[in-house]
Amino acid sequence: MTVIVDDAPTRVREDTEAPSPVLYQNDEEKFCKEMVSKLSDPEKETAAKTSYSYMSRSLSGKRSTEERDNHAAAMALRHLRAEKGDQDLALKKMQSTIAHREEIDVDGLRRCFYELEHPDEATANQYDEYRKNIRIQMGSAKAYVRGYDKKGRVLYSFVPRRKNSEDPEWYLKGYVYMMERALACTERKTGGAEDKVIVLFDYSGYKSAHSPPLSLAKKLVFLMSDHYPERLEHVFVLDAPLAFRAFWILIRPFIDPVTKAKVMFLTGKTAKSDKLGGLIEKNQAESFMLQGGKMPSDIDMESFLSRVPFDHAANEAQTAAIQEPILQQH
User: Fold this and answer.
1) pLDDT in tens, 208-235
2) Where in the sequence is the signal peptide annotated (predicted)?
3) How many CB atoms lie within 10 A of CB 223?
4) Alpha-carbon span 161 to 171, nearest angstrom
5) Which of 63, 84, 158, 182 has the most CB atoms in a 10 Å sphere around its CB?
6) Which residues of the chain register pLDDT less than 70?
7) Which CATH class name applies to 138-316?
8) Rounded to whole angstroms, how far apart are CA atoms 42 and 258?
């Protein structure tokens, strides 16, 4: 199976090293191992595949049971910390997330652009549907990943004034797809040393007509809170007009306190420079983030979706080889 880019077949990049080990505190390692021991083998595998690096290797058989359990424990740790050390509740939430990932086929969403000739007809048709809907949702560049902070955490940008579909199912799946890309980028860039992303909202030019239905916004907030705990380092809301602040008043009660504490409103060049200047280099920033930001403001989303490796940001398109189809055997 081959993907064609610029009429030239390109081979797959393979991960050769597992990410760095998780850094535990106090009794966290013991608690996480206990949580993992209570999972079935299929649950452990799904949990481990929250690591894109692990998923890529697992499809070619290049992983061990120990590696699987270590990645599953990393997922357990995020839920344990999100639940303030309540092991039973953390396990319940973790299993809910595992079931959710299987239900919406997160692995298929991550693989669909790189398996254009899937040997199973049903899966091939399913991936066609995934690609079509992701293009509809993300083709306007309403959300994308481009640039990194000084610690190698990817910059996950949102431009709310841009239009996407409000189809209830794919509104959510589109953002899941892009969140998974963001996490994969941070993992690759830092060798697994970091597992969070920096979210930046560009609210310039925003009007109240750009707000999504409150019901969809609430579902997205709950989805991210329930199934992506401990994944946000910062959330910056830049140049938000009064029209958004009215919407914020409506959605704010549904955001969990930990995430809410990470949200920072920055308006104007000075405020953005004071806060973001120490976090992001100008060669990684767009102009809406920092005055003098050198990252271009336009983005070729078709190239980003279908030609840039899943774990590379849009600005890395010129230096990264296309992601090889990662499914070779059945």
Assistant:
1) 889 899 999 999 999 999 999 999 999 9
2) none
3) 17
4) 15
5) 182
6) 1-23, 317-330
7) alpha beta
8) 31
